[in-house]
Amino acid sequence: MALDNSLLTKVVRQLSSPPTYAETGVKGSILSAAASSYGFRADLDELTQPTGFDPEAARLFEALVESAYLVANADGHFDDVEQSAFQHVVIAACGGFVAERQVQALLLDLKDVLLEDGLDQRIEMVGRAVNRPDHAREVLRVAALLAHVSGGVSDVERDVMKRLTSRLGLSVAVLDQALNEAQTALND
Predict the structure, then answer these.
(1) Residue 39 pLDDT class (50, 70, 90 cuts)
(2) What number is the average pLDDT over the span 140-146?
(3) What is the average pLDDT score of the chain?
(4) Separation CA 109–CA 137 (nearest Å)
(5) CATH 1.10.3680.10 is the classification of domain 5-187
(6) Are the C-beta atoms of 82 and 1 separated by less than 8 Å?
(7) What is the DSSP letter of 99?
(8) Cβ partners under 8 Å of residue 106, min gap 6
(9) Is the sign of the CA dihedral 138, 141, 146, 147 positive or negative?
């Protein structure tokens, strides 16, 4: 699979930007806001009371990335090219808050827990980490945008997204909106 650099750039731009449903004045995405806390953690692992680290935001960041990872692995094929593109997009969308080594480590962890726990348990874990409706919508938005990196949203990827939607307590209409907005934004 050849990567479309203009598509990757569009995905990064969308992931970095506030969603359409964000309040007026919001400057960045939930993903980039959560990334700032997640990235901060690595430098403060040895402190007992790190200033600036928000464990809830870090958990949300992991859930956002994991949801997209689950969708990317839906077909059982997540080759080196797809993984490289996925990693590049996540790092770039986080605006320098998350280091490459952190994303690499997170992806290795996600691979291990998916093999160990299975898809249903990982969807459940994502659902437990997401407590607000706007965060739940962001899970779908991030997953929809990252699904396009590998050539669009396949039926099996859409099925995983439906399962995430159900676990997050959202309607299929919200999923359809996330998919349509991603498609429209990436076609511009």
Answers:
(1) confident
(2) 92
(3) 87
(4) 24
(5) yes
(6) yes
(7) -
(8) 62, 65
(9) positive
- Phi, psi for residue 49 in degrees, rounded to 5: -130, 80
Residue 50 has pLDDT above 60, yes or no: no
Quick check: pTM over 0.70? yes
CB 137 within 8 A of CB 174: yes
Alpha carbon distance 63, 137 (integer Å): 12
Q: Which residue has the tokens 């995430």?
A: 164
**Number of residues that this document lists for the chain:** 188
Residue 152 in tokens? 């669009």
Report which of 113, 156, 161 is spatially closest to residue 139, judged by C-alpha positions: 161
Instruction: Kindly give, in sequence order, each residue whose CB lies less than 8 Å from that of residue 63, ignoring residues fewer than 6 positions away.
Output: 125, 126, 129, 130, 139
| Structure tokens belonging to residue 5 | 């650099």
